[in-house]
Amino acid sequence: VGTKLKDKNNNNNNNNKLTLTIIPFNTVLNACAFSAHTTQEEQKEAMAVAVSTFTLIRSFGGTVVADTLSYGNLLKCCHNLMSPSKKRTELAMKIFDQCAKNGLVGELVWQEINKSVPKSVLRQYLSPELQRMAEKSKNKRYKNKNNVAVVVGLHQLPQEWRHNVGSGQNREEAKRRKGQKKKQEPKKQQKRPAIPRGTGIIEPSYTSGKDI
Q: For a Cys-Cys bond, which of 105, 128, 196, 199 suits 161, CB 3.0-4.6 Å?
């Protein structure tokens, strides 16, 4: 579907182009991630769909941009659909490296990379200062809000890894939905002021033939 939309937009003029967002692509990635309780063949197929979906996102050239949920869901696919192996570690670290460079390491991304690769590999990726902090935390065992063990807390990661979380198309989409919700809310009817008792409304007799 995404490929067809892309081709249609390329063939249309600016007035007839459809507005694409990252949301349907994230939905596909999330659906793939939850195909873990299927056969091995189906898991391989789901992983292939996830990779092709992410590749498609990048092919839009800025029209649709991967966000923190895109990277988080793709890493979740790695953890749920691939057995622990060197191949899974290399793929997950490649995804995480690109995510960090784009400043999109959020809670889900940090959780899933900690689940997808050995802690020793992840510690080596950190700066020397964070490596020492991670070594000290071996006994302490940092855990995130979902009680998943992580090498260091998310807030301790470099700011440049996280500075784009919550920005971009998701923020614009949230604003759009909020605006639609306001439009759909029924307007409160204003109460008309009550007419005090004893107050008469006088209508000229020549209009109705009687006084009210």
A: 105
Helix (H) or strand (E) holding 149: strand 149-150
Distance from C-alpha of 184 to C-alpha of 146, rounded to nearest angstrom = 35
- 56-84: buried (b, 16+ CB within 10 Å) or exposed (e) per residue? bbeebeeebbbbbbbbbbbbbbbbbbbee
Of the candidates 63, 74, 62, the one whose C-alpha atom is nearest the C-alpha of residue 28 is 74
**Residue 128, phi then psi, degrees to nearest 5:** -55, -40
Q: What pTM was estimated for this model as a whole?
A: 0.71
What is the residue type of 58? R
Using CA atoms, how far residue 2 sits from 22, 30, 57, 77, 118, in Å, is 11, 16, 9, 20, 34
